[in-house]
Amino acid sequence: MVRAYSQEHTYKHPWERVTSASWRKFADPENKRILSHILEVDTLNHKLDSISGRLYTTRAITIHAPGPWFLRKIIRQDICHCVESTVVDAQSRSMQLSTRNISLEKYIEVEEKIRYDPHPDNPKLWTVCKQETSIRIKPLSALASMAEKIEQKCVDKFQANSAKGREVMERMCKYLEAESRGISA
């Protein structure tokens, strides 16, 4: 059984500001309090394709293990390592992030895809964010009802963390807006 959900959010900020905020959201000290489930973020590599103009980046993200406390007790691990791959195409004004866990794979598979594009109704001033997440608890597949309950708890946790992420992105966008005007936030 796989739990999947999608969300869409409109940032009333231009694409350039929203994508800048995305890069800076983990580095801001105030955001570390809000995004307390994120323990560490390290850039593994980045490459600018001079022909296409696309930026490719891979980051390692260490988080508190997802899911309910009893699942963490069963797997005996409190942290999870993830890999985030990002492609930014400044020419088409698109930023795509794909994140998946690389630890705890025998227990849980999580894949999150986020895409930032200019909003079709107001492409110069707004940005649409589309997020798709799928969660699969593996060893409990034989116990479908138990797996479904745990997957739903994981979905609830991921949705709560997504809301925190949107809050951080909005704060960062406002900070960047003030910074671009020469006003300290």
From TrEMBL:
Gene Ontology biological-process entries: phospholipid transport
Residue ranges annotated for the PRELI/MSF1 domain, each copy included: 2-181
Coiled coil: none
Highest taxon of source: Eukaryota
GO CC, alphabetical: mitochondrial intermembrane space
UniProt-listed Pfam families: PRELI
InterPro entries: PRELI/MSF1_dom, Slowmo/Ups
GO molecular function: phosphatidic acid transfer activity
The protein's name: PRELI/MSF1 domain-containing protein
Organism of this sequence: Solanum lycopersicum (Tomato)
